From TrEMBL:
One of its GO terms (biological process) is olfactory behavior. Keywords: Membrane, Transmembrane, Transmembrane helix. This is Protein CBG24875. GO terms for molecular function: G protein-coupled olfactory receptor activity. The lineage of its organism: Eukaryota, Metazoa, Ecdysozoa, Nematoda, Chromadorea. It holds the Pfam family 7TM_GPCR_Str. The chain crosses the membrane at residues 26-52, 64-83, 134-156, 185-207, 219-239. It comes from the Eukaryota.
Length: 300
């Protein structure tokens, strides 16, 4: 995914992967639709958190009778994104987008036939406005803005509730827990805004001004790929109920690894007459085989 001049594109090397261009284009459109699913899934998560903090019985809307509706909303968001690409962004031979990209490939000495692509171009080579791509851009922005407003409003209202709880906590334990949740809430509001909405919004907007921002081109795909890993980190880091068990688990594996390493060094430093005794008292059959292999190598 990258910008070039007044256009933005997603390409895939079909020759290297050995797949038909039509199949590659379809899966690229599905991948783009997943972005719509992602942002509306995040928005619903914020709504759920707000209902939980509000404590006015609205969590009943997330029970089984209404649950299907909440799953449908992200699917609709993803389908809307997919349909926008299908309607407003052509990828066939002879289209403005294809010819624009072909010129770029020719300048780079690449064979255009080896790649499949989708994308939009805001201005043609004679600087006339491509209203088709402009309309698609408007749809993208509208889809993103709706999800963005839901996240900001739900996040702001949740922040107000947590702030009041901090002022009127019933105990030190309650106050400490609410502070942890407050920090996690702030972080989890900032992360999707800075890693999803701003980068993709900039990606779709800067071609309007014929700006090539190569740094963004390099990182935006990685941002989208690693976002699911980054998103839960604030909860794990700020909230004791998650952080302490995770640290304990990591320490357990660390100590286990160090113990095995210590035993290996301890056995290697023993004279030959006591190694068999150490094997019998402390080691499994597999470890005996491993240690015996190490000693035989040392002898030779």
């Amino acid at each position: 995914m990258f910008t070039y001049g007044s256009g933005y594109f997603m390409i895939i090397d079909v020759k290297k992967r050995g797949i038909p261009p039509e199949v590659a284009v379809f899966f690229m459109k599905v991948l783009c639709g997943c972005f719509g699913v992602t942002i509306y899934g995040i928005a619903i998560h914020f709504v759920y958190r707000f209902f939980a903090l509000e404590r006015k019985g609205k969590l009943k809307y997330f029970e089984i009778n209404y649950l299907a509706l909440w799953f449908v909303i992200p699917v609709v968001g993803g389908f809307s994104w997919y349909i926008t690409i299908e309607i407003f962004f052509e990828s066939g031979s002879g289209s403005l987008e294809t010819e624009y990209l072909r010129n770029m490939f020719n300048k780079s000495n690449l064979n255009f036939a080896d790649f499949a692509s989708i994308g939009g171009v805001y201005y043609s080579t004679n600087n006339s406005v491509n209203w088709r791509s402009i309309s698609g851009y408007s749809c993208f922005v509208s889809i993103m803005v709706i999800a963005f407003i839901i996240i900001v409003v739900a996040g702001w209202k949740s922040w107000k509730i947590v702030s009041k709880l901090l002022e009127h906590g019933e105990s030190d334990f309650s106050r400490k827990l609410q502070m942890q949740l407050y920090k996690a809430l702030v972080a989890q509001t900032i992360i999707p805004i800075t890693l999803l909405f701003i980068p993709f919004g900039v990606l779709f907007t800067i071609p309007l001004f014929n700006i090539d921002w190569q740094i963004l081109n390099r990182i935006i795909v990685w941002i989208f790929a690693f976002y699911p890993v980054i998103d839960p980190l604030p909860i794990i880091y700020f909230v004791d109920y998650y952080r302490i068990p995770v640290i304990g688990l990591l320490n357990f594996f660390r100590e286990k690894s160090l113990t095995k390493a210590y035993r290996r060094v301890q056995v290697q430093n023993q004279p030959d007459w006591c190694r068999e005794k150490l094997f019998g008292e402390h080691c499994s059959k597999l470890e005996k085989i491993q240690y015996t292999s190490i000693f035989n190598k040392k002898k030779f």
